[in-house]
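User: quick one
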Amino acid sequence: MAKVTELHVNGKDVTLDVDGERSLLSVLRDDLDLTGSKYGCGEGQCGACTVLLDGVPTRSCITAVGSVGQRKVATIESLEQDGKLHPLQQAFLDAGAMQCGYCTSGMLMSGYALLQKIPNPSVAEIIRSMNGNICRCGTYQRIITAIKEGAKVLQGGAK
Amino acid sequence: MKNAETENFSIEPERYELAEWARNWELDRRQFFKTLGCGVVVLFLVESLLAQETGGGGRRGGRGGRRPTELSAWLHIGEDGTVTVFTGKAEMGQNIRTSLTQAVAEELRAPISSIKLVMGDTQLTPFDMGTFGSRTTPDMAVQLHKVGAAAREALLDLAAETWKADRGSLTVADGKVTRNGSNDSLSFGELTKGQKLVKTVDDSSPRTPAEKWKIAGTSVPKVDGRDFVTGKHKYASDFKLPGMLHGKILRPSVFEATLVSVDTKKAEAMPGVTVVRDGDFIGVTAADELTATRGLEAIHAEWKGQPQPSSAEIYDYLKKNVTEGQGRGASPHAVGSIEDGLKVADEKLKQSYNIAYIAHTPLEPRAAVAEWKDGKVTIWTGTQVPFGIRGGVASALGTPQEDVRIIVPDTGSAYGGKHAGSNYAGNHTGDPALEAARLAKAAGKPVKVVWTRQEEFTWSYFRPAGVIDVTSGVMSDGTLTAWEFHNYNSGPSGINTPYEVPNVWIQFHSTKYPLRQGSYRGLAATANHFARESHMDELANAIKMDPVEFRLKNLKDERLKAVLESAAKTFGWGNQKGSEGHGFGLGCGNEKGSYFATFAEVLADRSTGSVRVVRAVTAFDCGAVVNPDGLKNQIEGAMMMGLGGALFEAIEFSNGMITNPHLADYRVPRFADAPKVEIVLLDRKDIPSAGAGETPIMGIAPAIGNAIFNATGIRLRSMPMVPDGLKS
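Assistant: Done. Structure below.
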């Protein structure tokens, strides 16, 4: 596959020179030093590598970087703005919605995308939309709580 | 008939954890101040493990009769007031970075934010056997309390000297010492300035009792939580060094295969690919992972394997391949006569329970980055045993131990799966630290090795499969008369029954086994509790007695009774009877100093085969609670993890290959599987805190199995219980 020479990541145009068959995840992590997105399975089964492409949650481990094109990539590193956590990040902290934290980036990106689409999701909607993300430490109920709390804050304006 | 001491059943670590690693901590005391600047240092000294193991042999050796001591942890208060604590323990999601910080903050009367922990670094932290067996809280936290208390006393001494004041007139709070009834105060930094003070403490040193805790015992949030929600935290797999290459390892086609021939020419001809060969160890390096993977795929290797047992026949295989007389629990725990006990029983029951091999599946696969400089290697890797890895790498590469430094960044979970032990036993493939070190040495550049999920599922190790046979007798009034319990291969942890029985025979049988097996959160206690608590439910059913009442009748242990009664109350046991498709069940027990009772409510649909755990309650007592919310998180997570092994997780294998080495084929619990969970903590301030990361995994499997029986009348005796759904 042809080389990829530019990407739009976290609001910036970046130039690079990489084999288009490489995974978006490896390019983000190894070439752009955005290591917040994680390798968990390489098969699109665990969601640890989730990033947004034009706002759509996408498994970057099975996305060839050559297929990204003009779409805007958003990673976990883009959620915090000017040193201020996004309300969903704060809600994860408040709910203690992690143990080892390895799934957290993917959970946040999937949860963020959900709240963009459904600002006030029901528990059933959260489960349906988050079921592709694995937390081996088993903090699912806390993540559900965090997403509901994050939704509340976002709906009520800035915290 | 041999009688074994009860002690045989309570010693940890288990057989997988007995690896004997050389220990070496050379930093001279004077080096402290050279390295860290002036200040106050407090060292915790323990009796040498070597001396303990050789029965006090350390009395010899010309040390004037003193038993040799080893450093176990240390603390430094710098001239800027920064408190740095050094411990060889590793954080991997069990939240000990926070709970250990609480221990020091409690005693130092200092804010959590002023204390930094350096963990799992073989150059900076004292030797530690490893982070396993739920030992951090009962051992390291206690040591750090004592270290913190001694540091506080040293600061009081310094302040008293400065002010020429009576120590009794001084107070330590909020990171400073103040003179009562005045505005005079000195910060820790002001007190330690220019000092070169070293204090030592040991087991006999004082600490604050739990009843008086102000910081310990509270729900302090994860100390570095912000780094995890921003993606800033660097796991081992996130490390990147200048010029670093990515490495891939050639794996045998099947377990125990021998290399017949290998052709690496095609790979060597690929641009950017370097092939590294050292005997049977073959790997490739390249600047990016895809190129390395392509290089690996271009290697043509022929392997010779031999027929090996498959998962379809595993339980027969284990029973037919007993290797008696080895390991802990090999001699039976025997009291009275099973024959006599069965004679007086009104009901007799004989059943067999199976436990499949399962995988830890830590979300961060094994990973390491290695860098050589001047003949010395530094390796960043996610492991529970940094010092074990150091010994393993040193001996495999013929490098002196002091030239190997292992650093463990807080790790993306382990669950007992990131030990070195079995992976270094005469095997050249098995640990990415060693693999990265080999490749980096050959390449002359830093190398990162991250196992793929498939490698993780294949080349790590598994929770042992097992067969448990139980024969029992009970009187119609609920009195147990006989209890015979044989565990084949899965392990002796938690094998003893907490119930009062006059006639007992309990025995662990070592067997040959086909897969690499080792520690897993809770070890075999999960399997033993599944068999025991399922069997207890069967007995209660046989004599038509309420399962809670039946257990209480046969229990004397007050702490176990208390969690059972507490969980039953919160769950609302007895408020609703089971009906077709809707059932209730429980499992209880104690292990590693913690007591638990777990109740589950299950919906089971015979027509669709679906089984869903809709609600679960656990009551838990681990002595004085160190961090209530952290503990609840561990209990909730352990129940969730245990649900996977209970219902659907199983490693399948055939002829030396894992046949489901993907998350698409090996099902772990997901959001849709998560029941509503309620946790009741019985905080016993009068009892020393036990570790609690493992034990809460043990109750959920029998609770679910018993609830399925309650809902359907179907008794499931094999874990996982419904890998393909419920079958009528």
